[in-house]
Amino acid sequence: MASPFIKRYLLALERYKWAGLAGFLGVLGFAGVIALQAPPEPKYQSEGVLRQNVPLVSFTATGTEVRQIGQAFITEDFLLADALIEQVSDELARRKITISPDAIRRNTLIGVGDDDDNGVQRVVVRFEWFEPEASEITLGLLFEGMIELSRIANKARLRAIIEALDERLPSVETELRQAEQLLEEYDRIEGPAIQAALDGSLLGNISGSQQQQRQNLIILATLDAQMQSLQARLGLTPDQAYASSALSADPIIANLRTQILDTETQIRLLSRDLRSAHPTMVQLQSDLAAYEYLLRERAREVIGGGPLTPLPSGNAVRQDSSLDPARAALANELVSLKTQRDALVQQQQTLALSEVQLRQQYASLPNKQLERDRLAQQVVLKRALYDQIQAKRIDAEAAEAETVSSLTIAEPPATILEVPETPNKLVVLAGGIALGVMVGGGIVFLLDMLDGTVRTFEDLQGILRDQDIPVLGLIPEIRSRFAPILVQADTPYSDSYERCRSNLRLAGSQVNGAAAPKVVLITSTRDQEGKTISAFNLAIASARAGRRTLIVEADLRMPSQARKIGIDIDPQAIVEPLRYYGGQLGESVRLVPNVENLYISPSPGPQRQAAAIIESSEMRRFLDDARGRFDMVILDAPALSYNNDAMLLEGQTDGMILVTRPGYTEKAVLATALEQFEETEDIDLFGAIINGADVSVRDAVDYDDDLGVHSLADEDSFSADLEEVRHSRVDF
Known about the structure:
Number of domains: 4
Strand content: 5-15%
Largest sheet: 8 strands, mixed
CATH class of the largest domain: Alpha Beta
Shape: flat
Oligomer: single chain
Number of helices: 27
CATH topology of the largest domain: Rossmann fold
CATH superfamily of the largest domain: P-loop containing nucleotide triphosphate hydrolases
Structural class: alpha/beta
């Protein structure tokens, strides 16, 4: 038996033979065209060598650098520049030699990078042409142009360097001037402080400030002693002494005090004879209040808004303004001492603030010195850059006078005859045949890889094995005189279905723990995979095993196939499908002739409301009655790709069987269906049947059901009795 890969490739070759043949003929035709071409004309090859130009004397460093850079840029694209080839072609035309620029470029070969014994770079240039003289002249012109092109490129690089330096120089000069100005301005502002720190005058100022503060403290102590003595003698604070002295010296206050005294005297004298409500007494009281108010207002004017104790009444003003000359002198002296003390305290605060500033200035001197050093360093760096640019510019201007090419001729052009090899026509044709076979086979293989249909039962077996799906049976293609529905008792294919039936009993006990499944749903991923054939033949195998078996045609969207086994459906069932399933069980179940113990419930299809019928209570009662009266019930359900009828029926069964077929089952559709079964916990999948496998009947019987393969009977091998079913798109 051939390997699965070879079988698959042979099947692909059968399908895509015309595409493979077209690829083979295309390659063979191309090889034939090459073999039939006339031998090429002999050519003359001129070859010469350019080498790195090393001048004996170089006065400038920039010139040497430019030549070295030019040598690094010596490449095939640089040496075969469009402008150079155009000039060579024009010069050849003036010499009556016609060679186009494209021909010059196409026939010129350049090898760059080889070094001689002295480590000098070499450039090997070859030119091929049909005339020896034209070949040598062309190569000589190319040499001259390459050398001149290198010299022009070096000169252009020098000019670019000079222009770049000229463009850079003004900004560098501006930066240098700015750095110098910053240093000069810093020296003008911070220079005296730095110099004072360096010559010691700053420390002297700090010491002088401290000495002055100590002297002021001594004077303050003396003043405090004198003020305390005067305060004890006067019984007044300095502020009170100032107020009393000012009030005592004011003549208006003295006059008001006299008037107040006279008015009080009159009131005391008249109070003996007159009542307080007497008009004279009222007038005197009013005058007294007016004098006291004027006295207080004058006191405020004399004393002012200073921090003095406010005068509560006229009596207080009269008392404070009654200093005698001796006490007034002492009060004035106390006020003077207070003024001197305030002046010394203010001076102490000023000296302390000055000392703090001097100390801060002394502490910041290192930072100022570092800042000046930094500014000075900036000036040095920018001056060095400015001087370097100036020197580089002068060197580049001097290098212009000694600009030379980076290349020179090491070996002048020499011409030899080159006889091209003529390929062997037989070898070319043989190679074309071999390559054509490879290309044609590759096209067939590529088209087969792009096809998503599973072509061999081995591939189906691998897919099912990866998904842990058991294979219940491997059914070979039915190619003999027997009909696909195995009603004949002596058919050799019945053993395959008997094997499938026994495997189903074992799989059912493993899935749901029952002894054997009673109600089984058979479906497929798409049409023409053989699910109907598998359902009928599996039911026949079950009936011949002595079990009362019922086939339920559950595909209500397609016509019934019961007539293929001699059963006609009642036309009234198509009109009233719910009554068909809701009546007595015997009304919708027929005995199959020629097969003992086999019954069938024909489909009343096609029906527009197939899903509603499947979900109806009549259908549920029908299946429940069938489960009770039959040993085995097999439901032939629609394919999964077109509707959900099979999934709706699965809940009323013990589980399902998935039918597959090489050449019809699509890998992506099958994988999607298996993933859906795995994600849905309520679905019990007993296994799969591989229908239409390319194996003999004996190999199918000996097949190990642990491998897990899918298959389907070949529709083209069906007998003429199935032609009508095929045209009606029944999955049969």
